[in-house]
Amino acid sequence: MTQRTADDVEDSVVALRFQSHAPATALVLCALGLEYQAIRSHLCELETRVHQMGTRYEVGKIKDTPWLVTIALTGPGNVGTAALAERSVAAFKPAILVFSGVAGALKDDLRLGDVVVATRIDAYHGGKATEDFKARPVTWPVSHRLEQVARHAALSGSWTSLLPEEEQSPGPAVHLSPIAAGEMVVASRNSAVYRYLELHYNDAVAIEMESAGLAGAAHLNDALPTLVVRGISDMADSRKSLADRSGWQHRAARNAAAFTLSLISSLNPLEFENTVQRTVSDHSQVPILSGTGTLQVQSKELETVPRCINFLPRNVALMGRTDEVEKIVEAPVPRIPDVLVIDAVAGMAGVGKTALAVHTAYRLMPSYPDAQFFIDLHGFTAGQPPIDPKEALGVLLRMLGFSADELPQNLDARSYFWRSQVARMRSVLILDNALNAAQVAPLLPGTPKCRVLITSRRRMTGLDNFRSLSLSCLSRQESVRLIERIVGEDRVASDRRSIEEIVEICGRLPLALHIAGSRLREHGGWSLSFFKEKLKAAHSTTAALRAEEKGLAASINLSYSGLPNNCKKMFRRLGLHDGPIFSAVSAAALVGTSPEDADSQLETLYSHSLLEESTDGRYHFHDLLREYAKEMTKKLDSHQDREHAIKRLTSAYIEKSTAANSIVDPHTPASRSTSSPDCTETFISDRDEAMAWFESERLNLLAVVRQAAEQHLNEDLIKLTDSLSAFMNIRGYAPNAVEIHELARAAAHATHDSRGEMVSAENLGAALWEIGDFSRARHEFDIALNLAKHLRDEPATARLLDRIGFTLERTGEYSTAVSCLNESLSMRRKVGDRYGEAKTLNSLGAVHWRLQEYATAMECFEKALGIRRDISDRYGEVRTLSNIGFTLAQTRQFHHAYDYLNEALDLATRLDDRQILSTVYNNLGYLKCLTGSYEAGIRFSEQGLSFARQAGSMYQEARALDALARNYRGEGLPEKALTLYRRARDMFDRLGVPEGREVQREIQSLEHEGLGNQVFDKD
Fold it and tell me: With left for phi above 0 and alpha for psi between -120 and 50, is residue 375 left, alpha or beta?
């Protein structure tokens, strides 16, 4: 992109006046996730942007309009909204600023679901506290131009076309009135705040917590045209919680979003041209015309956000390697345009492949400024398997800001998702320590906007368009200069001959030279000849090693010998930690010290170049250093000491994992749990924190599980795997869960631990159930049930009967399922297990639904719903709401079905439960098909398909394909329907569930009709 002259800029701006398709930007802020999703659902071609301070945005288009919409979450409160609005305006230079969300009504003439467009914002918390509080109101009017457009939209009613069909006529009322904005939720009309508002702000019709901050930010940006649109979600009274549970927050957010997007769509961008020009001149910026014909702004003060995504390790100054770096940086444009070019750097361990790649990436940053990614694939890491491509993609996508819950679980889907995210980003990707081409292929972007650097001990073969670069050892001169850079010119000049011998003993390997130089720098009083003799002695002890490793081994041994004893012990014991990254807590467990002491020792090892720093006080080994640490602990530590270290490490992870699990799965009965009941660890405060901890430690936890199995720490193994069960199933890590629960069950069986085997068999069955292996799941549940009966454990027996019954429901064995579930229900009521009672009632209702006994099913579901609401089981509640809605759909009570499914969707969205979101969206897809709303049914089913793949649920993925097929058939697209039906049938058949037979009948019907165009009717 080149800078234009002032005349060019003026011509460009004039030219834009005649380009009706040139995009303008509207910045829309929301406080809550459901408000954000309501806006997001109307946008297409979404791209993610991340501010240098971490704020995440999405930019999308309103179809068939010249508008781009940037959306962001502010969280509740005026202060945060003001700060984020100011940051966002500076970054994106929007033509208009809008807040869309929900509010409480202060006037009785408003109704739930109505829309309020603010004509004035009253910040009501200002005042002077005397004997009588004296209000000092601060108010801001909204943009007159936007208010006029809003009044016209309210009169025409055209905005309701964005609402569901059944709610368009008559649509919600629209009120243009003042809004009060403060810092607290008003949930009672008897409260002092409500009376205060009546006294001082009696023309305000609604109350919320963000608009004052928004209006203040707009004022600071030269009265940027601003509007606030709010849907009424409650009446600001004691019934607020009831309104929330009934789904009015979701509806109110949806109505506000529909009005907001309709209003933006109707605006002419040219009317707001002065806004863009003013913000350009006020910030000393240069507007330029991009190659796509859209006006962009280059700021001298603010760099755009994508430049700030940088996950590279710290840059290091390279010694030598100038030719190699220039070969990559100055590489000519490929002869084949628009083709991704890959530079693959090969060489022995310690030769400096990673340092070269990182240094080169920093050199490339000006040409690839949007993002820089780095990931160690552990292709040759001692004691650790290479990272699976699916796992690696998860790491990369989390660098872009996606949570684990947002990621597809299928490798192909995750690879596509990654490519789509980086397609428009000018970025550098380092795939470090790769095993082979098969490992890296799914990680490769799809466009030449990204430069890829791969390092490996092997040459990469099997990749298209890659350029190979082999690194050899440094020259003698370069090696001497590297030591010189570390210890100083004068010291090297004092005994050049000894230095030349030192670099040869180190094999001229950069890693060995760095370690040796660090040792020399630490001991400033050592002569170079003395150090040379010590290095020779260390070198002579490594005769069994390969020639290329001798120099490195000598450097490590010498550096190790100079450590304090406690740091020597720490270095050795870290070799016992098979996880990829370790913190002060895990390191402390290995040596039996405090985390504070461990942190100091880790810092010492890092300063001696024996550890590499990861992030947030966590460290990792270079793969060869890990190997030497393992060798040293085997050589110098007794077998008993090593066993005790691993035992302490395992116990530390059990303590933390048990604490996290108690928050993730609070309804786990004590009769099932094998974890310590007296765990008092309080390092985690809520479910999000617990899930984040599990995610960050997952690979470490799996490594510790495997070590516990190898060391025959059977009791610890069973406790640790039990505490991981809920997390693994929720996040879709069922294959890993199957592996660890198999280890635990085998250990329990071998030691005749009946309770441990019961728990492990149940967990293994649950993991098998998640991956759709219902036959093996039933087998494991049967084993666990027999053990529960042997132990006379009634709660466990009831729980396992429920699991078996639900598995039988899934495989179509309905009569046996009813028998199992009735027995489970009786036992759960007997022991007073209300959580379990609701769960079994829900399962029983599902079986009666299968038998088309809808009245009985509804009775079960309604009882389950009542209990789940009584005990605040929100995750259970959303599942039962969905089941009720789907049952009502079968009895053609479509309006009530939609209400329940809509409430379930709102709750599932707030809980961010991907598994149930796929179910609810699929149920909505089927419902829309039954009502003939095929286009909406397709949208819902596509959402269900997306969430099913993210959750790794083959069953829900097949249901989504089935629902899509039915809606496409209704739309008169039988060929597309037939393709989808066949995919759904194949998946159902692999699962061994009866739905496959029903889908096969639909396929035969279409084939019999010769792919006719008849409308599908489920009944």
Answer: beta
C-alpha to C-alpha distances, 505 to 497, 532, 554, 578, nearest whole angstrom: 13, 8, 8, 30
For residue 795, is pLDDT > 70?
yes
Q: Is 800's pLDDT higher than 90? A: yes
Q: Give me the residues paired with residue 127 across strands.
A: 135
pLDDT of residue 184: 65
Tell me the domain boundaries of the chain: 6-281, 311-470, 476-561, 565-637, 641-789, 919-1019
Residue type, 761: A
Q: How far is CA 880 from CA 10, 191, 860, 886, in A?
A: 61, 35, 10, 10
In the structure encoding, which two tokens stand for residue 721, read together?
């795997």
- Which residue in the block uniquely carries the two structure tokens 């840059």? 315
pLDDT band at 649 (very low <50, low <70, confident <90, very high): very high
Distance CA 152, CA 139 (A): 24
CA distance 623 to 384: 9
Average pLDDT (657-684) is 66
CA atoms within 13 A on the CB side of 24: 26
Q: Which fold has domain 641-789?
A: 1.25.40
Cβ pair 73, 30 in contact under 8 A: yes
- What pLDDT shows up at residue 292? 33
Gap between the Cα atoms of 241 and 274, Å rounded: 45
**997 touches 975 (CB < 8 A):** no
What CATH class is the domain 919-1019?
mainly alpha
Find how far residue 921's CA is from the centre of its chain. Answer: 20
Say if residues 858 and 887 touch (Cβ distance below 8 Å): yes
- Rounded percentage of the chain residues whose pLDDT exceeds 90: 33
**CA–CA dist 427, 699 (Å, integer):** 27
> 670-679, 754-763, 950-959: lowest mean pLDDT where?
670-679
Residue 783's pLDDT is: 96
CA angle 122, 124, 125 (to 5 degrees): 145
Mean pLDDT for 911-930 is: 87
Tokens representing 374? 């780095």
pLDDT for the residue numbered 412: 81
Strands 427-432 and 371-376: parallel
* Residue 30: its H or E element: strand 24-30
> For the domain 311-470, what is the CATH superfamily, name and number?
P-loop containing nucleotide triphosphate hydrolases (3.40.50.300)
Provide Rg for the chain, Cα atoms: 32
**Segment among 149-158, 534-543, 812-821, 847-856 with least mean pLDDT:** 534-543
The pLDDT of residue 539 is above 80: no
Written out in words, the top-level CATH class of the domain with range 565-637 is mainly alpha
Give the architecture (CATH level 2) of 6-281. 3-Layer(aba) Sandwich (3.40)
pTM of the shown model: 0.55
pLDDT at res. 116: 95
Question: Would you say residue 334 has pLDDT above 60?
Answer: no
Of 448, 364, 445, 435, which is closest to residue 397 (Cα–Cα)? Answer: 445
**Measured between alpha carbons, how far is 229 from 213 in angstroms, rounded to an integer?**
15
Helix 248-266 to helix 33-40 angle (10° resolution) is 40
Number of H helices, E strands in the chain: 41, 22
Read off the tokens for 436: 């082979």
pLDDT tens-digit series, residues 337-366: 455 768 888 776 677 888 888 988 888 888
Provide the b/e sequence for 25-42 (b: ≥16 CB within 10 Å). bbbbbbbbebbbbbbbeb
Q: Do domains 641-789 and 919-1019 have the same CATH topology?
A: yes
The neighbouring-strand residues paired with 452 are 342, 429
Mean pLDDT taken over the chain: 81
Mean pLDDT, residues 391-400 taken together: 88
Let me know how long the chain is: 1019
**Helix then strand then coil, % of the chain, to nearest 5:** 60, 10, 30
